[in-house]
Amino acid sequence: MKYVSTRGAQNLGGFCDVLLLGLAPDGGLAMPGRIPTFGPEQIEALRGLSYPELAYAVMRPFIDDIPETDLKRLLNDTYRAEVFGHPDIAPLTALGDSGLYLLELSNGPSLAFKDMAMQFLGQVFEYVLERRGEHLNILGATSGDTGSAAEYAMLGKARVNVFMLSPHGRMSAFQQAQMFSLREPNIFNIAVEGVFDDCQDLVKAVNADAGFKERYEIGAVNSINWARVLAQAVYYFKGYFALGLPAGAEADFCVPSGNFGNVFAGYLARSMGLPIGQLVVASNENDVLHEFFTTGTYHVRPAARVAVTSSPSMDIGKASNFERYLYLITGASLGTVSGAQTLAWWQDVGEGRPVNLAGTPHWDAVRASRFVAGRSTHADRLNTIREVDAEFGRLIDPHTADGVFVARPHRRSGVPMVCLETALPIKFEDTVREAVGRSPERPTKFGGIEALERQFTVMDNDVEALKAFVAGRLDDRRRDAQG
Ligand SMILES: *Cc1c(COP(=O)(O)O)cnc(C)c1O
Q: Which positions does the record annotate as the modified residue N6-(pyridoxal phosphate)lysine (predicted)?
């Protein structure tokens, strides 16, 4: 499989190349040159596979530069009951006989759905780096979920170090404890005196220094990584089969969305032939995606205008993976995918101008793609947490509550609606307590983690201090490796 850029570049190499790539040289995102599809009988043949077998069947058509036995081993090592807390890896639970279901994606080490892909990334990074004799030093910024998922995925990896910046004192107590209690020689937590945007600006400033970046093998694990999107497509198949529908019957999915990576993986699964009906995009008060799917205008918001909400992992004004979706839409509207069209749109996006598709053939293609959208407020999420607890005896987190709230008005009679559970309620204890007046149950392995010793470095918002820190630690690591 040859990969191309959403903005037109043709030769990005194979899966292992784009795995380590970040952005394409033209600024676009990596996409497979074509999307392999399964016919109805091939889909039926996937029913009943274990999670790692299913992952192999779904991902293999996109990965032809890792030998079969190696890829199977990587997937078996990734999707284990001990890591994901359940033999099904992504179990499906019915909410009574309401026709609503929860697809549980948050029983992994960081208690958020990002583990589903990030754990695979940890395995496949180590494998590819080993084969190439390279190292990777991940420099990232987090306001919570991505940082802990990345750190748990890279624990103990010999060829990967993680430098994770977070805004000092601004994460939830649980999130801080999850990250800062890790005591591993390859994990460095840096608490920056500033807000999340300052952390992100520091990462950008280090990446802008090409010499430093190359010398210290700096890379990223952000949500535009193709391997993350691909690994996420697997659980749509898993959730669909768990419904036990007759062959070919449709199911709808509802996805709490921010960077559009998770719901795009659902679109990928549908494009491969899985009978998904509607894809419901759920937003919070930061509703750029809702605005697009209801009006045809995509207008990104600058960081200063992104609201701080009780579903913070969706507080995003610019949905990185949305570019992949519009790129595929050009294929439907123009007959063949157009990097030139995507490039033209993203020139506007990059300069803060709205892209308006209403009245164009592209908008007809968007409507035909069966995406619908909705949004919730803080009060909606609290009410939904309360209702789901009262009606079904099940506590959900504010992101999942956003999904359930938005899903309800889109229910179709006789068609199941699968809501993706993107985090466990314990991660957002304060909001859950505000809703139901009690704290969620805590998985035993996290009992008392707030009391564990924490290891992190407090740093001024200063790029030179950050570079000196990274360089110093990496020089130490290299010396240790030699001595
Ligand atoms: C990251 C995240 C989201 C948003 O997912 P995207 O792939 O960015 O759309 C939703 N909920 C939780 C809990 C998350 O951590």
A: 114
Angstrom distance (rounded) from CA 175 to CA 74: 28
- For a substitution probing ligand 1, which of 111, 232, 257 has the most ligand atoms within 8 Å of its CB? 257
CATH of the domain at 325: 3.40.50.1100
Q: How far apart are CA 409 and CA 412, in angstroms?
A: 9
Q: Would you say residue 8 lies in a domain?
A: no
Q: How many domains does the chain have?
A: 1
Q: Is the CB of 401 under 6 A from ligand 1?
A: no
Separation between Cα atoms, residue 239 and residue 332, nearest integer Å: 27
Q: Which domain holds residue 299?
A: 92-110+241-436
Q: In this structure, is residue 443 part of a structural domain?
A: no
- Our answer on whether the CB atom of 28 is closer than 6 Å to any ligand 1 atom is no
The Cα 411–Cα 313 span in angstroms is: 25
Interatomic CA distance for residues 149 and 178, integer angstroms: 10
Sequential pLDDT tens for the chain (483 residues): 999 999 999 999 999 999 988 788 898 999 999 999 999 999 999 999 999 999 999 999 999 999 999 999 999 999 999 999 999 999 999 999 999 999 999 999 999 999 999 999 999 999 999 999 999 999 999 877 889 999 999 999 999 999 999 989 888 788 888 999 998 999 999 999 988 878 988 998 998 898 999 899 998 887 789 999 999 999 999 999 999 999 999 999 999 999 999 999 999 999 999 999 999 999 999 999 999 999 999 999 987 888 889 998 898 888 989 999 999 999 999 999 999 999 999 999 989 999 999 999 999 999 999 999 999 999 999 999 999 999 999 999 999 999 999 999 999 999 999 999 999 999 899 999 999 999 998 888 888 888 888 999 999 999 999 999 999 999 998 888 886
3-state secondary structure of 268: helix
Distance 189 CA to ligand 1 centre (A): 21
> Is there a domain that residue 253 lies in?
yes
421 C-beta closer than 6 A to ligand 1 = no
CA of 70 to the centre of ligand 1 (A): 30
The set of catalytic residues is 114
Domain membership flag for residue 181: no
Ligand 1 centroid–CA 211 distance in Å is 33
Give the pTM: 0.95
